[in-house]
């Protein structure tokens, strides 16, 4: 029995890839819940016929895949480029920018340490997904959440660590007990509605 890689599935979701599978002759698009239900051996709807998750560069490349393959690819337009811009922004943060209230939140990251060039492209999200995934997990949770919310708007545009915290959590850093009255991260139907970038 061949299982779909949970690491690969999580990466596709984190990068907000389009995803597609054939289910009873019908194409199901961009529904990670359905993909999870049919690829999780613990699920009552588990289908062992799905044997592989393949990343491709665009939807055109996905059309020739057999029915047992789940296919994912970067979204067209600003979102994928926004994700690249966000990753480069987070990598470009130096130690002074990563120090928050006297504590270093994470170590400085260099693309060269992962065998990548200084200029990432959308193709790298597919061709070098394992390296990008490793870098992604070096970011702290606040950065990851912020990058996902900023991606549809072309990437992050923040001026301070306090602003990053506010945009990521909806809370002011000096008063964590009260949510902002007008949070830019309100969720509706499980999706982020908007993000106000400075």
What does it look like?
This protein is an alpha+beta fold. It has 2 domains: 6-73, no CATH class; 78-186, no CATH class. Helix content is 36%, strand content 17%. It has 9 helices and 10 strands. The protein has helices at 6-14, 32-39, 59-62, 78-91, 95-98, 122-127, 129-136, 141-150, 161-169, and strands at residues 18-23, 26-29, 52-55, 69-73, 99-100, 103-104, 171-172, 175-179, 187-188, 191-192. Strands 2-1-4-3 form a 4-stranded mixed beta sheet, with helices on one face. Helix 3 links the parallel strand 3 (52-55) and strand 4. Helix 4 (78-91) packs antiparallel against helix 8 (141-150) and helix 8 (141-150) crosses helix 9 (161-169). The protein is elongated. Residues 172-198 have low confidence and may be disordered.
Task: Give a nutshell description of this structure.
The chain is an alpha+beta fold and 198 residues long. Helices cover 36% and strands 17% of the residues.
Q: What descriptive keywords fit this protein?
A:
198 residues; alpha+beta; 2 domains; two-stranded antiparallel ribbon; 9 helices; 10 strands; 17% strand; disordered C terminus
As laid out across the biggest beta sheet, the strand order is 2-1-4-3
Oligomer state equals single chain
Query: What order do the helices and strands follow?
Result: HEEHEHEHHEEHHHHEEEE
Instruction: Name the shape in a single word.
Output: elongated
Major β-sheet profile = 4 strands, mixed
Work out the helicity level. 25-40%
Gap from first CA to last CA:
49 Å
Number of domains: 2
User: Pairing-aware structural class of the strands and helices?
Assistant: alpha+beta
- Would you count the extended β strands for me? 10
Q: Which value, in Å, is the CA radius of gyration? A: 18 Å
Quickly count the helices: 9
Strand content: 15-25%
Q: Spans with pLDDT under 50 lasting ≥5 residues?
A: 172-198
Overall pLDDT score: 82
């Amino acid at each position: 029995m061949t299982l779909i890689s949970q690491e690969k599935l999580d990466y596709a979701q984190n990068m907000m890839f389009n995803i597609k599978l054939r289910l009873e002759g019908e194409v199901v698009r961009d529904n990670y819940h359905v993909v999870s239900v049919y690829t999780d051996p613990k699920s009552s709807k588990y289908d062992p016929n799905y044997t592989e998750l393949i990343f491709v560069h665009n939807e055109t490349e996905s059309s020739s895949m057999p029915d047992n393959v789940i296919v994912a690819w970067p979204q067209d337009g600003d979102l994928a480029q926004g994700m690249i811009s966000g990753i480069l922004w987070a990598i470009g943060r130096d130690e002074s920018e990563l120090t928050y209230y006297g504590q270093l939140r994470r170590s400085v990251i260099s693309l060269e340490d992962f065998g990548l060039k200084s200029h990432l492209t959308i193709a790298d999200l597919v061709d070098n997904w394992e390296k990008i995934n490793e870098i992604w997990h070096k970011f702290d949770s606040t950065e990851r959440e912020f990058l996902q919310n900023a991606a549809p708007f072309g990437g992050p545009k923040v001026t301070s660590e306090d602003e990053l915290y506010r945009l990521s959590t909806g809370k002011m850093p000096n008063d964590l007990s009260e949510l902002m009255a007008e949070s830019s991260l309100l969720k509706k139907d499980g999706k982020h509605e908007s993000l106000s970038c400075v």
